Every structure is written in structure tokens, then in C-alpha cells.
Amino acid sequence: MAGVIFSKNQPAGLYGFLKFFEFFFFGFYISRKLKTKKDFGILSLFLSFGVVLESIIAVLQFINQESVGGILYFVGERNFNGQTPGIANASINGKLILRPYGTLPHPNVLAGYLTIAMAIVISNIKYQISNIIKILLLFSVFVGIIALFLTMSRVAIIAWFIVVLFAGFSFFKKKTSYRFFIYYAMLIILLIAVLLSSPIGNRFASLSLGDESVIIREQLVNASFLMVQENPVLGVGVNNFLVNLPSSYKTTNGIFNIQPVHNIFLLIFSELGILGLLFFLWFLFITFKRIQKKKFSIFPLGFAQGGHFQFSIFFVVLFIGLFDHYFLTLQQGQILLSLVFGIVWSDLNNI
Q: CA nearest 343: which of 119, 168, 132, 157?
């Protein structure tokens, strides 16, 4: 609360403080509600519906290179095309291609949602008795992967490959001999090679330290460190990173990119100081210890038993959080974060 009182924009800090409790109770509700296979199945089924809907919208946006429009406006789709100022485009073979948004505020948020939702859906398939539901879940993963690649969100795609890689290792470790590890690894390597050789793969291969996105992130990181130096104990205050950014942002071209630092740890450090960061790290530690009690094996990202899939979605949040901020700054990202922690702290290991 002290970080709110001493912040430049106290109303923004108070709003962020109240939002923290809102999502804390949402996560707490999820953790208490999920107890049985039936609860988990219902959650996975609804998430699969979301994956299918968002994936279809994303594919249509990519094909048309503009928003779908119509009734989708009322469920969150923005009105945009490839020439809309500030829109997320990717350079593919020298041509700017619109990255699909779905009904979410940015392609990276869509990719994060798809990655987490598909990890949850996959983990539920083996618990389903109905073949129809299994087919629906598998179909949602199929279209979800297509949409995920179309978002061209590098971090989320890498996170997805890691999750799938260790999921397969965990499955084969229980079912077959070690030679299948080699076959499975070769298959993953082949898929990565196909991806990198495709037009979308150019987005990965062409990444350099001189890219505008990299430079902007570096400038924001430097600004966050300046804020920490000036306010090391309590930070600049909840929701006050952007308020303090103009006085900390150092640029050579006179252009300011007003956006949060793309790292949830640095963002917490900047806004809540060392006390807030230590509390967050302590919470992550006890969360990991809770998952560890669920007896995941040497391949902890798999879905074969116990806490495997819970570690997977926990890993996805932390990995993406190293390179983006939406888990703390956007409504949809905050809901995703609360959902993940709610699932991790639930008693689903009993299934």
C-alpha cells in the first residue's frame, strides 16, 4: 500500500491494487473449484471451444489481412488492417504481413492463450471416455497449432515446442524403450527445420540485435533499471511504470515508445521495488515446491501423470514472462495468469 501512497499517480496505483485482489480471488476460486476429473474435463472442454473460435478468427484475419468485422466487434475484435497505425506486422521476404489478433489485444497475447490452453486441453484427452469429445479436443489442438504459427510470436512458439518435446519424452519414458526418445527428438528437429525453412521461419532466422523490437526492449530495460536506482525499496508504485517512463527513457532519435518493460520480473522490480520482487520470487518458489510434491519425473514438462501438465503451464508463464509483460498489464493476460496459478494450486494431482 505504501507504493500506492508515494506514487506519482495514486488513482492508477489504487486501481492496480484493487485489480490485484480481484485476480487473487479469481485464482483462489479456481484452485478451490477444480478437484475432480469432471471439473478438469469441463474446464478443458470450454478452453477447447475458445481455442477453436480464436483460431478460426485468426486464420480468417491472416487470409484477409484485416479484421473479420461484424458481430465479432462486440466480443473484442478490433477494426484493423495491415495499414492501421501501430498494428503488428511481420516482414516476410521483404513484405509486411499482418499478424492475426483474434479477439485479443495483440498477437502475442493470442499466442500465449493458445499455448497455455492447448497444454491444458492435451493433458485432458486421456481422461475422456467419449470418443467424440476426444476428437473435439484433438481438433482444437490441430487448429490451435495453425493459429499459433500464424501469430508468428517467437517466444510462444518456442515455448510450445519445449512443452511438446518434453511431453513426448515423458510419454515414451513410460511406454517404450529409449530408442523412441531418439525418434521423437528427430521428428521434433525435422518439424523445426520445416518451420525455419518456411516463409514464417524467416521471422526467426532474420532476428538480430539491430531489429527495432530488440532496440525498443533494450531501451525499456534501461529505463526500468533507472527507476529501480531511484526507488529501490518500494518502487515507483503499482501501475506507475508508464507514468515514470518519460523521465527515465533514454532515446537517440527523440521517439518515445510508451509501453511497459517486456519482462514481468523487471516490471515488478520497477513498480514494487526489492520488497515486491522478493515476495514474487518467494511465491514462485513455494508454487514450484507444491508442484514438485506431485511427483513429476525427470521430464517434468510432460503430461503423463500427476503435476506434469501443471508444471508445463507454470513454465510457459515464466518463459513468456521473461520476454513480455501482458500477464501483468492487460486484462486478458491477468486472467490467464490467475487461471494458471489457480490450476497449479488446485488438487488436480489426485486425478
A: 119
Residue of 45, 6, 25 lying closest to 335 (CA atoms): 25
3-state secondary structure the chain: CHHHHCCCCHHHHHHHHHHHHHHHHHHHHHHHHCCCHHHHHHHHHHHHHHHHHHHHHHHHHHHHCECCCHHHHHHCCCCCECCCCCCCEEEECCEEEECCCCCCCCHHHHHHHHHHHHHHHHHHHCCCCCHHHHHHHHHHHHHHHHHHHHHCCHHHHHHHHHHHHHHHHHHHHHHCCCHHHHHHHHHHHHHHHHHHHCCCCHHHHCCCCCCHHHHHHHHHHHHHHHHHHHCCCCCCCCCCHHHHHHHHCCCCCCCCCCCCCCCHHHHHHHHHHHHHHHHHHHHHHHHHHHHHCCCCCCCCCCCCCCCHHHHHHHHHHHHHHCCCCHHHHCHHHHHHHHHHHHHHCCCHHHC
Q: What is the pLDDT of residues 187-207, one digit of tens each?
A: 777 777 766 666 666 666 666
Q: Where are the domains of the chain?
A: 36-207
Q: Which residues are 90's β-sheet partners?
A: 97
Distance CA 220, CA 212 (A): 12
Q: Quick one: cell of 299?
A: 521430464
C-alpha cell at 268: 515488478
pLDDT of 100-151, one tens digit each?
999 999 999 999 999 999 999 988 877 676 788 888 899 999 999 999 999 9
147 close to 55: Cβ distance less than 8 angstroms: yes
d(CA 119, CA 111): 12
Closest C-alpha among 290, 229, 220, 295 to residue 261: 220
pLDDT in tens, 231-269: 888 888 888 988 888 887 766 556 667 889 999 999 999
Do residues 246 and 226 make contact, with C-beta atoms less than 8 angstroms apart?
no
> What would the grid cell of residue 218 be?
533494450
Joined grid coordinates for residue 165: 518435446
